[in-house]
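Workshop exercise sheet. Pairs work together: one partner reads the sequence aloud, the other fills in the structure field after running the prediction. Swap roles for the next sheet.
Pair: D.N. / O.F.
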Amino acid sequence: MHLVPIEDISDPRVSDYANLRDAELIQREDPFDPAGHRGLFMAEGELVVRRLLASRFRTRSVFLTPTRLETMREALEPLGEDMPVYVAQPDVFSAVAGFNIHRGVLAAGARPLDERWETLLSRPGPTLILEDLFNHDNIGSIFRNAAALAGAGASVLLSRGTADPLYRKCIRVSVGNVLSIPFARMSDFPDPAGHDAQRLRESGIEVWALTPGEGAVNIDDAVRDWKRAGALHPIALMLGSEGPGLSERAMALATRRVVIPMCKAHENVDSLNVGVAAAVALYALGLAAG
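Structure field:
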């Protein structure tokens, strides 16, 4: 473990941790790997940093307080000499970050180059397709629910309008599970004449659009039919953002529209939160597959 004491808030060695704005982190380059990634992201908290260290993402450095060094020592000991572990007293640590971070531990991860989303279709599933979700809490919640309910074959596909899962808040809300569930961004989804739509059709994957709109079948009936088919072929669940939901172009790509029945307390309750809807649908699929 390469321990590096930090005593000055202007120490350039911890410049990655100063002014932790996501948009700026994306632009930061790694002089040791200029062609192998496209910026940085930040992990906060002991549990999330542990998941980063165990993930497919490369950790550039760790920055923590002496107390957190002791609680994380067994996870940090195996790290090589080429990855620094910066240690600072709480006042210096918070001054570098610009605000008081009560968790006392940060880590800078390298953003990988974009993966071709088609490679994820070979996973056993289920797959979640997110259309234009911009709320970081919802995205983080969906990744956490996928990790808990979708099994080891889960993956997430993102439309171009969906927010970045590697934003700090997404990672934090997901409790680090954004780092364990493979994801990739689509290029022209949901254009019905585009490459993405064609690849989805050719893949043979069954695409279910989650919608409370007319014409949707009860998810229990859809799952029963899926199980009755025997092979339990992979399913992709499409989810839209709060408010507008899925676009008509996205729903046109679905092989089935499904609805989660609700027992409403008031007539103005027209849908579930998208993270909750993802959890219910994944649970239903898991029951059938199990």
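Discussion prompt: The mean pLDDT is 88. What would you look at next?
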